[in-house]
Write a structure and sequence with these properties.
It comes from Neosynechococcus sphagnicola sy1. This is Heterodisulfide reductase. This protein is globular. It has 302 residues and is of the alpha/beta class. The two termini are 30 Å apart. Strand 1, helix 1 and strand 2 form a beta-alpha-beta unit. Helix 3 crosses helix 5. It has 13 helices and 8 strands.
């Protein structure tokens, strides 16, 4: 086990507590198995998923300054398990830390609005980190490999990073935004084989889905078909919004592109937790729209 033990202020986000409840479930199961302590920020607000700034940058910054301040009060890093939440909150944190040095009047405005609502001020004293990076950089791949009890040998996994995780922030301390390897390295640590394909660093199409549904589904379908053609047994994503477009809407995607698909889509913590011997039922793998049975059958668990 890593020492000292890891502890985070946990920002679960909206989708993991609703449409993708299995992500919340599997994150809890994985972190408990690894001995990682999560202090859930139950008073946190939705990050806005990038929509707040369409009306007001000040709104996005103030809402998420409050979210970060909740973690600062605990003197803990803020942990997300959603690429979109990471991109939005991480970028706000970058912008406000820059404002501390270059635009102190703007930060005073943000903190003034927080004070009016009886909220703690943003101090810029913590970090915002996705679960992927916490596993790779904080816990460590060697330590995860040592915890594996059900090696995922023979399982070919295609990463789908999501655009917010890679390019939502100005700088990316833990990976290359255009040629990332953190998910593939994690796959190798749990015994799976990484599959490379063109769409793994591109947008899933979710942001278009409310006003350009056909184009959104065409994007998703293209990525899924490329992963299938590359030999993937499943796609693994660190973003619940990508999961919604690639899994929940996959039957509709297949109809739009006129081609059958049927590729299982896993949340990142589900894959890692399987390698630790946590049961599929405990990880909510029965909640997916596209059946995960082929993945479990290949591993000899179905």
């Amino acid at each position: 086990m890593p020492s000292p033990s890891l502890k985070y202020a946990y920002f679960p986000g909206c989708v993991a507590q609703g449409a993708c409840r299995e992500l919340y479930q599997s994150t809890q199961a994985l972190t408990q198995a690894l001995g990682i302590e999560l202090v859930e920020l139950k008073q946190a607000a939705c990050c806005g998923s990038g929509t707040f700034k369409e009306d007001s940058q000040l709104l996005e910054d103030t809402v998420n300054a409050r979210n970060i301040a909740l973690a600062e009060e605990l003197q803990l890093p803020l942990l997300t398990h959603c690429s979109t939440c990471q991109g939005v909150i991480g970028h706000v944190d970058e912008r406000l830390k820059q404002a501390q040095q270059q635009q102190p009047a703007y930060l005073e405005q943000v903190n003034g609005l927080l004070q009016q609502q009886g909220c703690l001020p943003y101090r810029g004293s913590t970090t915002v980190k996705h679960l992927l990076w916490a596993l790779v950089a904080d816990y460590g791949l060697a330590e995860i490999q040592a915890q594996v009890t059900q090696k995922l040998s023979g399982l070919q996994c295609a990463a789908f990073y999501g655009c917010y995780l890679l390019r939502g922030q100005t700088s990316l301390a833990f990976d290359d935004p255009y040629q990332p390897e953190s998910m593939e390295n994690l796959f190798r640590a749990v015994g799976a084989t990484p599959i490379y394909y063109r769409g793994r660093t591109q947008c899933c199409g979710w942001p278009l889905s409310s006003y350009a549904t056909t184009q959104s589904f065409q994007m998703a379908g293209m990525h899924i078909q490329e992963a299938i053609a590359a030999g993937a047994d499943c796609i693994v994503t660190p973003c619940p919004l990508c999961h919604l477009n690639l899994d929940s809407r996959q039957p509709e995607v297949a109809r739009v592109i006129g081609h059958p698909l049927g590729l299982p889509i896993l949340h990142l913590p589900q894959l890692v937790a399987l390698a630790l011997g946590i049961t599929p039922q405990a990880l909510g793998l029965d909640r997916h729209i596209v059946s995960t049975h082929p993945v479990l059958a290949k591993l000899g668990w179905a």
